[in-house]
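#struct-help
A.M.: can someone run this one for me? Single chain, 718 residues.
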Amino acid sequence: MSPPRSRLRSILPAAVALALPGGCSPRDPYPPGVVAAPASAAPVESMDDPRIAHLLDAARTWREMRGPGREVVDQLVLVADVPTFFSALAAWDGRTFYPILIDDPRWTLPFAEAFRPSRILRWPTTPRGVGSGPVDEWGAAGEAVSRAWVEDEPGQVDLPPPGARPRDLGRTPPGLVLSHPGSPALAGAAALAAGRFQPLVRVGRVVTEDRREEPLGFAATLTEEQAIAFARRVEARVASVAKSYGDLGDDVDFLTLAGDWPFRYDSRRGSGMNRGDRAVDDLLGRELPPGTADVDGARRRWAYTGRLLGDAPASVYRAMAALFLQPESALLWNTYGGGHPWSDYDVAGAATILRLIRPAADVRAHAGSLADLAAWRAAIEGPGGRDLLMMNSSGSPVRFTIAGGPGLTGDVPLDGTSAVSLIHSFSAADPTDPDTIAGRFLDRGAFIYYGSMNEPYLISFRVPYILAQLMVAEVPLGAAFRQGPGEGFGFPWRLVYLGDPFYRIDPDRARDRPRRAHADASPPGVNVLAARPRPDSPDAAGTLDWCYEASLLASATLGTAATPDVLQALDDLDRSRLDAGRRARFDALLVDRCLAAGDLAGLLDRLLRIPDRERTPTVWRAVETAAFGRLAALLREDRFDDALDLWGRIAVAPWRPGSDFPGDLTRRIAEGADRGRLPAFRARLAGALDRLDPATIPTGRREMLEGSLRKLDKDLAR
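D.P.: on it. Structure tokens below:
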């Protein structure tokens, strides 16, 4: 049971004081070439700091702006497609709601395991009228949002407009969800708008004079002038639907971007490394002076921005996770050493606070010699969760600095419905690419991600123990992470928040509150998922469907009891007889059930048995993570010969284009072996070179192995 708020107010200052690191030196932590640091550049170290007073004042207002007190119905609804999703979403009302997911095991299985519903329903598929023309998804999304806010009858036409704040529902959350027709994330946008009582507002694509027929999408880089024009257009659209938006604590303080708009713009201001790509998202919601705006002077915010990414199933999953899941565990990881400013980012204080506000949660903190790569691998594969992950590191879009490393995208956990904060350079350079760090976390289930899309500099991030205190104050994460106008990096910068910006950690453990029991009777046409025996038929598709249903029930209500039967059925199933869509479902099931059984070795063996020409991207990436994990376990157990056998299965095998994973694995085993083991590794390297088949081996593999052999010979000679 959480301590009462009055007790928290009395114990937190003392607890934080005990956890604070030593005094900071006055040395300017800005590197050369950056805009001169103002006097207020030092990180905020106290909740009494006047630079965050405006944030705490607004948070008091935001805590009261929740809208009607909806009850959560204890069920999970699955739908087949986007039109059916809108039909199910429209069944919400102002008093009750429940999670709805588009049926894709990559998202349904981890969500079911985290939410643990007492029953799972399949909503009847919405018929598409033959010959009725194209479906108006924007209209369907808006109608679903309107109906989800109120109790209504199916034929009722007198509904609240979805693009305006709902009336007569109390003080609803002060935000807007921005999207457009054709957006891949429109379904997720509707989910957040319906769940948060926030208007769904249409904002058009970005077009330029020379490309009016081809709007600029996520991957485009805007000029600074184009970015400012887009920010002004968004503000004008907000002004058209909100009575007041110019100050924090009014009608609009949060913007969720759920459309295909550019992610970056090229800033030519400043000098040195201060010039270059910045985040479009961090420019929006700021007070821009008239005329040619001085972007660096736009420090005052009227709204905080988050971006909802993904196709329909992924964006809906991220919206539903933000609406219905709260962290029950936290993993805090600090790879930094040395003095100021790195010592300011120690995680011990944050861990102390999180343990106070959620005493039943699993909160683990690793730092110093206990935060190396081997410990990381053990932490992400062992018991205990990481629903909230806060990590300090450095590196690039595809690697992070860690003792015994570097860490790579293959070291991102295979599973996890999580909120992630990564203090690190470039991790979110392209969050749509699962081969980058942010992209891999999102691909693996993160529904909140905060990080940098370009070199951010350390002190542009909030220190962890202040961030934890802001969580206690129920500040939405989209605002808690961001620096304000009086802080050193309060101007438009390079940090991005991916997910629902109004998501907040609930100190009252809202997820533990009793849910409303579902009705015994199901709506017409709804199918309640129930356990059934494994089919005797050799039909591969039917067997796969049974495996999926059994896995859903195991994840949600039965623990892992059904896992052995499902794994056996998957082993018996001829994957080659499945179509492409069912193969992707098979792969997601295989990963999920092996993880549920704690069988990483079995997962790797099963994945490697899939012919390389049949492997989906999910399989290739899962092999990387499973192989790194298996190698780490074998080295911990001093089973070096088995580690060499594992390396041999991959070192000379075909691999997906653009990936240097065989080289990464080769380097990792060389770095993880003590000197006495190196001769055995050298013999395996030489033997692998002899066995290479020039007709099948990818270009560059021989060069990698020959280079590794030369380096190993030098190491042995020393």
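A.M.: thanks! The longest helix spans residues 617-636.
D.P.: also worth noting: Residues 5-64+327-481 form a domain with the Rossmann fold fold (CATH 3.40.50).
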